[in-house]
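Bug #2210: token dump truncated for Acetylornithine deacetylase?
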Amino acid sequence: MPNSRPDRIRKLLADLVGFDTVSDRTNLPLIAHIESYLAALGVKGERITDETGQKASLWVTIGPEDHPGLVLSGHTDVVPVVGQDWSHDPFKLVERDGKLYGRGTTDMKGFVAVCLAMVPEMLEAKLKTPIHLAISYDEEIGCVGVRPMLREVAKKKVKPLGAFIGEPTEMKVIIGHKGKHGVRATFRGLARHSSIAPDGVNAIEYAAELIVEIRRRAVKLASEAERGSLYDVPHSTLLTSIVHGGAALNIVPDTCTVDFECRGIGITESREVTDAIVAWAKAELEPTMKARHPECGIDFEEILDYPALDTAADAAIVTLAKSLAGRNDHAKVAFGTEASLFASMAGVPSVVIGPGGIAQAHTPDEFVEMAELEKCAGFVEKLIAHCAKA
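Reproduced locally. Full output below:
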């Protein structure tokens, strides 16, 4: 392993990017690699494996186990590269003009690489307050993989004092983000030859009525924007994102699925908004469908759910984050993170702060600037000093 901090970060990031951890694939080779790296330093983590045995999170404690500590948290999964126009292999790190290119460099293997690169300094400091590394999976498909780990954290006798979730914020201190609730509506119609269309029940047409209602409610939410909000989009948002239906032009469609979501500002607002839409559809659309044919109707299923984050601006974890980052400001973001689950599932107050910008996440030729990673390393260095104090 290289001796200089920047070279250590580069090497670790190159290793992490080299693992194709798109969410539909196993992350176990990456986890094993991290475990091997830590074992060489005399550190052992706690692996939490999912029901399939193909995914795992890693919980690592450096410092005294019987003291409440601080968490550095990042996910290992990345979004797909299919259909994106990359100028090089997305799973091979490339450096040009101070920028490190590769899938996950910003979101968020860069942060994980920095944390791992700083482990030798954590060990050398003989921490009085422990630092935990929380490394998860399947964040990109709804913050799925962190939940089993947080259930284990919630059972521990000594709970963490707070958590820093290293999503890309350009090292700004983020105290809030919107929640999200996603729903799939499956319309069951009645197929008929299109020449006798009135005898059928058109699933797509009823689905269209739902889509129009979703749009109407989205416009209403936009009209209720908060003045002076810290959010760049200062209201809850609602949209239809995926629609599938129909088999042929001359067949009345007997099925149509509609996926829609709400990103709500309030802690539970996302679910409240979608629940109201489901209730409306069951009251206004489904009875008409069933009157046409008793087997017709609508089935609803939850496809994604996480709460909003709303950490108090004067919370101790926020004050500490500002001190470590060397800044006095804070903000909120529209994208979701695991921070709200640390707070809601394990009672761990959290902020979001990490290297890189969200504009680079999920894009072809995704990159993070080396200067951002070094700035993040400085943050962790100050955290180590803070945790080394008696």
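Output looks complete on our side. The radius of gyration is 24 Å. Marking as cannot-reproduce; reopen if the truncation happens again.
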